[in-house]
Amino acid sequence: MVPMLSTDITDDEKNILLSTAKQSIGYGLQHHKAKPVDPGEYSKLLQAQAATFVTLNLNHQLRGCIGTLEAYQPLITDVSEHAYAAAFQDPRFSPLTEKELPLLEIHISILTPGEEMDIASEEDLLNQLKPGIDGLIISDGKHKATFLPSVWEQISGPREFLVHLKRKAGWSDNYWSDEIKASRYQTISID
Fold first, then answer.
1. CA atoms within 13 A on the CB side of 172
2. What's the predicted TM-score (pTM) here?
3. Average pLDDT value for residue range 150-166
4. Which fold has domain 115-186?
């Protein structure tokens, strides 16, 4: 699969994805499942397999975020399912209410395929990171965590970014092992 570029997606396609996300959440309030979509009714780009995260904010505060790191289904389907899941299945939050729906800010991130990083040390990893551009996946054994590139907006630099990601993975701030694997990716952001 060829990585999608931000120039590949039209404004109409972006609007369709945002509308699909909102409709899926509305549908979920009534039917308790994601709105079914027929990928064949959409452009070739929206039918292409892609990995997405859908992030919901309410009053500029996180309200839900669900996604996948690997492409396994059509982009339009992935957005519909992850919008529903972010609204109703994020374990950090109670299910979204009808009253909250009109106030939601919906953000869609389309991920490029992850690129494994060749790292010799924690310092090497920090030096390779591109703040504001790279999303990062770290893993060691059963522990794995990711931050989307949008997290850089709330973080002051690579070291803080990595510390918060280690906490998310269940590690201490100073944890490091030669077994840690790291991959980076970028996103196409749609608001």
1. 4
2. 0.88
3. 93
4. Dna Ligase; domain 1 (3.30.1490)
